[in-house]
Amino acid sequence: MAIDITETPGTDFPGETPIHQPAMRRGSEWLRPHMGWAVVGAVVGYLLGHWFGNIIYGQNTVPQNTGQNNVAIVLGLAFGVAGWLAGIGALTYPLAKLVGREPPPPVPETGWMRYFRYTEDHKVVGMQYLIGVLTFLFTGGLLAMAIRTQLLSPTTHVFGPDTYIAIVGEHGTIMMMMATSAVVGPLGNWLTPLMIGSRRMAFPRLESFSFWIFSAGYLVILSALAFGGFPTGWTGYAPLQTQASGGMDSYLVGFAVIGIGMIAAGFNLACTIINYRAPGMTWSRVPIFVWAVLATCALLTLATPSLLAAGYFGILDRTAQTAFFVTEHGGSSFLWQNLFWFFGHPEVYIMALPGFGLVMEMLPVFTRKPLFAYRVAAAGMIGVALLSFFVWQHHLFQSGINPDMRPLFMLTTELISIPTGFLFLVTLGTLWKAKIRFDAPMLFILGMMFNFLIGGITGVFLSDVPVDVTVHGSFFVMAHFHYTIMGGLIFALFGGLYFYLPKMTGKTMNRKLSIWHFWTFFIFFNLTFFPLFLVGLLGQPRRVFEYAPNLQTLNDISSVSAFLLGASFLIFIVNFVWSQWINPTKSPDNPWNSLGLEWQTPTPVPWYNFERIPVVNSDPYHYGEPGALPVADLGREPLVTAGVVSKEEAVQPGELESPDDTDDFDPRPPIL
Amino acid sequence: MSVAAEGGAVSEGSGAPQGTDEPPRKEASHGWRLFAIWLVLSAIVDPLYYIFAGPHIPPGRMSSTAGGAVFDFNILIVLAIPVMIGVWVYMAYAIIQWRASKGGPEPEGGPLAANNFKIQTSWITITTVLVLFLAGFGTYELVQPEGAGGGQGPNPIWTPTSNTVLPIQVIGQQWKFTYRYPTFGGFETTQLVVPQGVSIAFHVTSLDVIHDFWAYQLGVKADANPNQDNVAFTTPYQLGSFVVRCDELCGIWHGAMYNNGAVVTKDQFEVWAQTTEKALAANTKLLPPFAYTYTPDANGADGGYYPDNVDPYSKVETYGATQPGSG
Amino acid sequence: MVGFFVVAVVVIVVLVIGFTKQPPTVDYSNAQSGQPVDVTLQTVGAYGSAPHPTWVSYLIKDPSTGQWVHTSYFQVPAHTRVNMTIIQYDSGSPLRNQQIGMVTGTAGKVALLNGKPFHVYNSNAGNGVGHTFSIPTLGINVPLVGNNANANLCSAAPCTEKSPHNVLKFSFTSPGSGSYPWQCFVPCGLGFLYGNGGPMQTNGYMAGFMKVVA
Amino acid sequence: MNDRLAADESFPALKETPEEIAYELRAQEGALWTGSRLLIGIWAFGAAGLAFAYFYLRSANNEQLWRPDGITAPTGLGAAIFVTSVACALLIAYGNRRFRSGVTLDWQVAGWLTVFGALVAVGLQIYQLTDLPFFPGSSGYASCFIGWAGFNIATLLVGAYWLETLLARELRLRRAVAEDGGAPRSALPAARLFRANLEGATYFWGFIALLALFFWALFYVL
User: Fold this and answer.
1) Residue B210 has what pLDDT?
2) Pairwise CA distance, residues A524 & A560, whole Å
3) I need a labelling partner for A156 at 20 to 30 A (CA). Which of A75, A463, B309, C56 fits?
4) Count of domains in chain B?
């Protein structure tokens, strides 16, 4: 732990060592890096990149003929992202490292400005992610309502067909980007160190980087609209991708940027979970949500490079005029599909697994029972993570490649439903003879189970090749994955927010509004998406701006429900604003009476999480056991006595004296 | 998730012996009650579905492959209904019976509540058996009716048993389908007419981006890839018209890329094909000779995505004539 | 807080207005009922001014003012004979798919090229085909024969008849009311892969709707 | 947002015990170990995407345009880049051995030479890109080669950056750890973490050499 309190030197706690610190050179609050500078950096970077791109490529025949310079757009966006990161201060330390500097000792940020800064506090990053994810979600939601507006009528066009597919693509991409971080971003970052009894993340700067590049991704993907949108939907199939206008560059750069953020987030969380578990936090005591995050991290770090490779090839095809995806120049239109789905299917589980983990984590609190089949649940999530690398070709059942592999991919796809089904083994087992409290999070848990069952079972239909011939690429698929992602992940996210916001912000959410939110959300979600199964089965392909007139009734039910579903989100916003800002009610430290380690901290949580590193006694699910040990010894006991650190290994106070007072070298372990 | 119900039911069924050191009387009742509700509901709903809804499931039974898909769909639904009923009944039961406001005993913790080995193993066994059955059944249904109507690429491995297969080429292009009939001089038309009772091989290909040929009522779906022959088989049984839609996003007019096809009797088909062949003869001779794939031209009518001085085109014939801009 | 919401609402309103903006519709439906409607279009090889000066485009003549409007939306009455005149100012090339070199769906399955009827046009000969006028749902397809590429072609809309051009005339009967997509099938998006990007995928250039009103 | 969200910051200051510092130090070393392996994994999956493209396009050989006329990128330059990369990896591996036996100077020399070598390789790669006998879009091979060139530049730059930061840090650490046996021996936390970091960087350089060998074989030999 390198964080030192320069403000309070000389506290005489035994073992605490006052150390020399170089004076902090803190300028004015407004001059230090913050989001405003990031915006400035992004604009400057974009203009610079665009100008540079025009110089090096403007005279080429393609921009001459099309009037559109993809190189300038790509460079503009890339420089813009770099400018954004420079403005927020993400590049300061990586550059200072080049001259061998140790990282500056971070001072805990205070005040609301910290939410607009590049901080090393995982709780601040978690809150930033929360706002970021909700921004993505609401933007995507508005676009979804635009889609449903167009589909109110089979032939009348509120939007032109070109605008409509731009909206469809934008909605899909924004939502997919959001969903990869929806739970891992806010709750994964916020909770993981608290759950494993750590004071910090392994790579806090990388964590902050992952958020700020995620937010840059939002701007990049929105910029597609300024360049005319992209016509490919979120899957970005080539060669349509290669043909498309400038908006496609935003899609490719945006996905690359988000992908880098995903890798950074997964990398940091994986290293943290593996190395920073508190003493006694053995693998069989790790909370199930942490298992879910760890399994997700494996997918985030290992599947995303494939997306980056695919996007990189796409950018090369569009700028350097290579021909990766252009068949008649020696490329292959299947290459994108393979690379994209090799990422894309694990991505589905990047979205699903944290939702599972969150539901399983919260359930014991509301049933007052131990989590049923903990080991099976953990093994199941690892199994899902492994198997998800071997199912990607089920997206290509009709594409004309490898027909002989179809039985195999049908088998692996159906096999993956076994570990996925463990969610139900665990949840149903935990409900058995429980004492269920129906608070808002529990309602969302039950709603999630209801929806995910439909989503999961229709997934089996899709994996079956003969049925897939009919439903592939139709609204049936669309309804299926909205049931799993929205019905599963987003329900889990809102459940998790109602559950954890009292800890995260210290303010309780209004109960009545929460329950109203749940019921409107649940009812209108089902009314929106269930008809779409039928619509798909009746032959409406995805992403069409016109459809058969006989499907209008079903589409209209869906559209009207979608608007009401949007209104349900408004209840959440009203509740959020009301309960957090306008009329906040202070929450107790442990309002749900949970055994989880994260709830044993004071509210609000100190920036160092735990006063003493806790020594963990058991897994946090010992409900209904009168004599059970507390989950952890919150650590008045020194670690040496607990037998965790040997005396020799413990750094003695004397060693921490800086040998040379004139050097700005801090002998304590630096933050990496 | 597939087998929640069976597993759920088993967990209840074998829930009785779980608390052996307790008086088992009351323990057992929940499990058996749930099992009974599940059994009765499933036994009612499944036949109701199969008898009343089953025959009307779209896309109907116009062809061998559509019929196969519908049969498969129905089997899956019949298996899914007990699963879903199981989970939902269990959840409803838990909500009613085990809610905190009803008071009742405090839940029991401890290792038995957290880990019931028997229930876990039976759950895993049952889900595995069901999944393996589904995979086997799906494979059979895939192999059996000539590849289930999915596109099988240039070298299909599941082919119709009949000796006479009528090839029809489907050419996807932005933004319409055209059809060539190689056995009738290779004429190209925008109408899709197929004979009843004859196995048909759709050779699907594209002249530009990826499309997807979806003959909805025929239960045929195959991607149209540039420079690739993607074969899908079906045998139409019923007369009537069917809808062809593009099922892979292909740009602005994707939603408008549809037309109607017709299944007619063999005699009518012969007449139609021969008349059309004659009517289109003038245009047919301007078309390139029939081939299973055509090399699309990456450049447009007036040249240029790739510069003109690059010359990979010369090795192969593009569809239509050589483009002036492409060297 | 309030400022944030105001900004968000303003952004959403601006976006909605931007999204719902479609090219203007040229109205031919005011003609006397029962009388044929004369619709006049032109194609230009390069629109010549912002936002996309290099893109090919269709233009439609407004019947009331006689002005050329840069749009691809026009409106005709239902069940009426529509006489189309298309003035083709662009050059042509051999077709990617000769199937669209055939006139279909028009009265008599012919079109008049500078007064001479034809049914099939061999795009490999002569100046080739520059664009098509096609309404796929009605089965209408007319190849617009190109001009000599070496001639001094019009390069900025609207073109006048001083530039080299071909005149194509054909007629069809409009269907019941509805909104019918029409488009060009010749990959004329210069510099885009397969020539089908840019103007080919943008409303108001090579793609649009024929609105039919009762 | 207003201040109430972050109102309470009046916590007691953090007072770490020496044991806690030691515990976290171990965790940090572990994180460096895990992280460097994970980074190699991430990079390997990215390279696998490229290798997949190579083999996919090669086996598809659409339009016989995988590699018309057996044309390759300039082989001399390719070999030079390959040899430079591998030599750099060997050099830094040797330097690291010397470092472990306590000779920091040798390590510094080898390290700076490696950074220089990596930059030379990047320069050669860029020069090679300007001097290709084919257009990027002319064949599958050409496309994959462009892809590899960019990827290789990124890989070498990351390796050079990582090593450079270590070299610079060692110079800065030097005075602080001098009495404690220098960076190779010192038990000070900064030195321990430095060694963990260096160990990861060395592995990464080994990985770079493997990548260079693999793709050199793909693009110039096969």
Assistant:
1) 94
2) 9
3) C56
4) 2
| Nearest-angstrom CA–CA distance, D82 and D120 | 11
**What is the structure's pLDDT at A639?**
54
For B6-35, how does the pLDDT look when each residue is reduced to its tens digit (9 = 90+)?
444 444 434 334 434 444 444 558 889 999
A411 interaction partners in chain B (CB closer than 8 Å): 135, 139
Residue to test with chain A: of C14, C54, C200, C201, most A Cβ within 10 A: C201
Residue D85 forms part of a structural domain? yes
With H, G, I as helix, E, B as strand and everything else as coil, classify residue B244. Answer: strand
What per-residue confidence (pLDDT) applies to B114? 82
Which of D198, D92, D211 is CA-nearest to residue D153? D211
Residue B307 has its nearest CB partner, among D68, D135, D139, at: D135
DSSP conformation letters of A265-329: HHHHHHHHHHH-PPTT--TTTS-HHHHHHHHHHHHHHHHHHHHHHHHHHHHHHHHT---SS-GGG
**Residues in chain A, pLDDT under 50:** 1-25, 638, 641-642, 652-672
Beta carbons within 8 Å of A31's beta carbon, 6+ residues apart: none
- For residue B208, what are the contacts with CB-CB under 8 A and spacing of at least 6? A239, A243, B173, B174, B226, B296, C187, C194, C196
Give the C-alpha separation, D197 to D192, whole Å.
9
Q: How near does any CA of chain C get to the CA of A68, in Å?
A: 9
> Which residues 220-249 of chain A have a CB within 8 Å of chain C?
225, 228, 231, 239, 242-245
> Which residues in chain B are closer than 8 Å to D63, comparing Cβ atoms?
227, 295, 312, 315-316
Where helices occur in A182-246 by DSSP H, the ranges are: 189-196, 204-226, 240-243
Using alpha carbons, select from A535, A597, A580, A557 the residue that is nearest to residue A199.
A597
Domain boundary among A435, A451, A470: A470
- Is the CB of residue C99 less than 8 Å away from at least one CB of chain B? yes
Ranges A426-430, A666-670, B234-238, D15-19: which has the least confidence: A666-670
**Contact state of A429 with B69 under an 8 Å Cβ cutoff:** no
Instruction: Please name the residue of chain A whose CA is at the shortest distance from the CA of residue D24.
Output: A1
Please list the residues that pair with B99 across neighbouring strands. Answer: A436
pLDDT band at C87 (very low <50, low <70, confident <90, very high): very high
DSSP category for residue A659? S
Q: Tokens 């350097």 map to which residue? A: A320
Q: Which residues 227-286 of B have a C-beta within 8 angstroms of D? A: 227
Smallest CA–CA distance, residue A66 to chain D, in Å, is: 18
Rounded to a whole number of angstroms, the CA Rg of chain B reads 28
Edge-first strand order for the sheet with B258-264 is B192-195, B258-264, B240-246, B211-215, B220-224
Nearest CA in chain D to B315: D63
Note the pLDDT tens digit of each residue in B102-135: 767 778 877 778 888 888 999 999 999 999 999 9
- Residues B73, A61: C-beta atoms closer than 8 Å: no
Q: What is the pLDDT of residues A127-146, one digit of tens each?
A: 999 999 999 999 999 999 99
CB contact under 8 A, B171 and C97: yes
Among chain D residues, the shortest Cα distance to B317 is held by D63
pTM of the model: 0.91
Helix (H) or strand (E) holding C126: none
Residue A19 near residue A659, CB atoms below 8 Å? no
Would you say residue D187 lies in a domain?
Answer: yes
| Tally of structural domains, chain D | 1
**Residue A165 shares a structural domain with residue A67:** no
Same domain, B185 and B263: yes
User: Which of A470, A502, A530 marks a domain boundary?
Assistant: A470
Question: Both A39 and A149 in a single domain?
Answer: no
Note the ipTM here.
0.92
Predicted local confidence at residue C119, as pLDDT: 92
Q: What is the pLDDT of residue C188?
A: 86
